[in-house]
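Summary of Year 1 activities. Much of the first year was spent building the evaluation harness for sequence design. The harness presents a backbone, in tokenized form, and records the residue chosen at every position. We chose the following record to illustrate the format because it has been used consistently in internal testing since the harness was completed.
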């Protein structure tokens, strides 16, 4: 697909979104106009384990794949794609993105790794077993988080929209507007599909959202306020020693990976010293 094709689809989708109109084609946008939305239900969780995590990893994407963690780290000039041992935190394999790339979310579908870039307008593909590069696809918007439902890739771009696209081509299938009882929920970031629901980090907010993939309603919420400070076994002063308020406040929760065998969730954040294994109550 050409860039222009994607751009035109996006323009149409976003225009429809802005106008609040139903599209003419089948179900490419979903709305809940006029429907009352109930407040999300608090989701409790237990912390089972804390595993080491590379404190230089500016985590942008996290996914469990064949017993290992696939992690994408950002920042222009130092972005990487990694295979990480989930319990030791050891980086088993790492490749670097080109120096001009700011990498973002990552997911694996049909043994292909999809790695987003933030504002480079490219999605990179790799063979999952060895990270052999499979090229890139143009993406007209920003790239923040990515996951999949087994059929479609699901991409966030920092707005309240989630884009369902075909793997391989990124052809747009539908746009989901995410909202809670107060209206659109923006800053959707790292994603993970867990048992049929989309879970999302929301940038600059201390919680994980549970989103109904049909309605776009936020149906649940995990409170993660001061999660690292409360639960880390590490000395966190290094986050301050960097000497930048921006970096310190940038060390936010941003990584959700689901182990479908153990039915546990691995969460971490940018520059965090640990990956936490949690289980929803
Ligand atoms: Ca994820």
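For this record, the design step produced the sequence shown next.
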């Amino acid at each position: 697909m050409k860039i222009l094709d994607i751009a035109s689809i996006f323009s149409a989708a976003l225009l429809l979104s802005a106008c609040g109109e139903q599209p003419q084609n089948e179900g490419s946008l979903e709305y809940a106009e006029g429907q009352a939305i109930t407040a999300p239900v608090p989701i409790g969780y237990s912390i089972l384990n804390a595993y080491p995590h590379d404190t230089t990893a500016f985590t942008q994407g996290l996914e469990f794949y064949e017993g290992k963690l696939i992690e994408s780290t950002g920042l222009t000039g130092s972005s990487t794609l990694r295979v990480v041992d989930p319990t030791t935190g050891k980086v088993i394999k790492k490749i670097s993105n080109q120096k001009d790339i700011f990498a973002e979310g990552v997911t694996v579908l049909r043994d292909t790794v999809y790695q987003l870039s933030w504002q480079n307008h490219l999605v990179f593909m790799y063979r999952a077993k060895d990270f052999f590069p499979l090229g890139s696809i143009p993406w007209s918007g920003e790239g923040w988080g990515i996951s999949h439902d087994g059929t479609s890739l699901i991409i966030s771009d920092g707005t309240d929209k989630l884009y369902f696209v075909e793997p391989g081509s990124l052809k747009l299938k539908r746009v989901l507007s995410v909202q809670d009882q107060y209206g659109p929920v923006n800053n959707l970031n790292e994603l993970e599909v867990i048992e049929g629901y989309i879970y999302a980090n929301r940038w600059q907010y201390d919680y994980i959202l549970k989103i109904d993939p049909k309605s776009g309603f936020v149906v649940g919420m995990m409170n993660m306020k001061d999660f690292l400070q409360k639960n880390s076994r590490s000395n966190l002063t290094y986050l301050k020693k960097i000497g930048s308020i921006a970096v310190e406040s940038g060390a936010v929760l941003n990584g959700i990976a689901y182990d479908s065998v153990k039915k546990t969730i691995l969460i971490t954040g940018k520059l965090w010293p640990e990956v936490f294994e949690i289980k929803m109550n």
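DSSP finds four helices and 24 strands in the chain. Quantitative recovery figures across the full test set are reported in Table 2.
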